[in-house]
Design brief:
The chain is about 35% helix and about 25% strand. It is α/β, with parallel strands linked by helices. Strands 7, 8, 9, 10, 11, 12, 13, 14, 15, 16 and 17 form an 11-stranded mixed β-sheet that branches. Strands 3-2-1-4-5-6 form a 6-stranded parallel β-sheet, with helices on both faces. The N and C termini lie far apart (about 50 Å).
Length: about 450
């Protein structure tokens, strides 16, 4: 049978992973698809460097020539970023070529238009590798859990952030120190903003939520908060209370709308998700029929990400002879059945909360604090009040009074109420620093 021919856009870490897997596992892939699958050309920035890899491919610096090549059936995009990836994918789809991509930012922001263009040209735009690297979470949501109404998703979906928080917890290190190591190890970019401020995770959460709930991609609706303000003190206090801090992406479908949020989160230490460390990723999905299911594995890397890209290639090849209406929809639901759910305002989010107050060690402070929460009807689950150190000099304020931290855990409550409580607490004369607030998720 005629071979299926692949054109690669990009031959960096991920592109090489795709080429190596397709070559090494060629016989196994042909057994699965019924026909040979071959990478025939690749668009690269440095032609000499690419040719030195000796992968047996045609290499060119002209990416447009690859997407316009009539010999190529499938374009595999591994460039990343917006430009020129967006225009190349648009051209490939318009040319009637199937497109496989690992570009989560492109799918999260431009995915609705690109999926529409793919439908118009009766081709597939596939993006399994755009979320959680080698973990087949998109296929699980779209196909494996198709019998369920997905209730919520909670995921550790950025390996850099997870590495930093793991090191802070295990070794008592400061954020800035671990970030520098992550950059030295190649886990974090020179500009780590996308990773540590949650933008990368927000892109991935956007995609998962759309597939889980059957709605258009809405990146702008994701509340995003990073981990750069997390201190080793908060990590330590969380552990005293039986929690670990993870940078979590949460999407929840409620009767009144959808929550999509990325933020540092306290998770009970006995939960499996709390014990995912280093650069690994994990996603917990709750369905009404199956209950909670956990998906764990490497969230990045040459062959883990390449594995997901090649799996998409195999899926596309299997549908070559099928009518487009018989293909699995890209977002798991028929495109005309996608629902524009209400995106809830942050004030209407619901969570439990960890609050750290740095106060003067004076009579009546605790009573003043608890009365504020009582007046607003906010239940307090736990209080951790630290005693002043034996030597008080380092904890003394300008006035000479000793400062101590008070840690509160609330029960689940509307975020708007917590904001009111924080505003009132910060008006107390005994408070010497702004209140630190972190969300708490039981994942039950």
């Amino acid at each position: 049978m005629k071979p299926v021919k692949i054109g690669l856009l990009g031959l960096g870490t991920v592109g090489q992973g795709v080429a190596n897997i397709l070559t090494r596992n060629a016989a196994e892939i042909e057994r699965r698809t019924g026909r040979p699958v071959q990478v025939v050309s690749a668009a690269v920035r440095n032609q000499g460097k690419a040719e030195a890899l000796q992968l047996g491919l045609r290499v060119t610096t002209d990416a447009v020539s690859v997407v316009n090549d009539p010999e190529i059936d499938i374009i595999c995009e591994a460039i990343g970023g917006d430009d020129p990836a967006l225009s190349l994918i648009e051209q490939a789809l318009s040319n009637g070529k199937h497109v496989i991509t690992a570009n989560k930012a492109l799918i999260a922001v431009h995915g609705n238009a690109l999926l529409s263009l793919a439908r118009d040209n009766k081709v597939v735009l596939a993006f399994e590798s755009s979320v959680a690297g080698g973990i087949p979470i998109i296929k699980a949501l779209r196909e494996g859990l198709a019998a369920n109404q997905i209730e919520w998703i909670a995921g550790i979906i950025n390996g850099t952030g997870n590495f930093i928080l793991s090191e802070m917890a295990e070794k008592g290190r400061d954020f800035s120190d671990v970030l520098q190591e992550a950059q030295n190890l190649g886990y974090a970019e020179a500009d780590p903003t996308f990773d540590v401020e949650g933008i990368d995770a927000a892109h991935k959460l956007t995609i998962m939520a759309s597939v889980a709930f059957g709605m258009p991609l809405q990146f702008d609706a994701v509340y995003t908060e990073g981990i750069s303000a997390i201190t080793r003190e908060d990590v330590g206090f969380a552990e005293e209370l039986g929690y670990r801090i993870k940078h979590l992406g949460v999407a929840r479908k409620r009767s009144d709308g959808i929550e999509m949020r990325v933020h540092p989160t306290l998770i009970p230490e006995k939960r499996l998700l709390a014990n995912v460390n280093g650069v690994m990723n994990a996603v917990l999905v709750s369905g009404d029929a199956v209950g909670p299911t956990l998906y764990y594995g490497p969230g990045a890397g040459s062959e883990p990400t390449g594995s997901s890209l090649v799996a998409d290639i195999i899926d596309v090849v299997r549908t070559f002879d099928a009518d487009p209406v018989h293909r699995v929809p890209s977002l798991g639901f028929q495109h005309d059945a996608l629902t524009d759910y209400t995106m809830l305002d942050t004030a209407d989010y619901q969570s439990a909360y960890y609050l750290r107050l740095q106060v003067l060690d004076q009579p009546g402070v605790m009573a003043n604090v608890t009365s504020i929460f009582g007046d607003l009807g906010i239940s307090i689950e736990a209080i951790l009040q630290k005693e002043p150190e034996a030597s008080q000099d380092d904890n003394a304020s300008v006035s000479g009074a000793v400062e101590v931290p008070i840690i509160l855990l609330t029960r689940r409550v509307r975020e708007g109420l917590i904001e009111q409580a924080i505003e009132r607490v910060q008006a107390l004369e005994s408070l010497v620093q702004p209140v630190v607030r972190l969300r708490v998720e039981s994942l039950s």
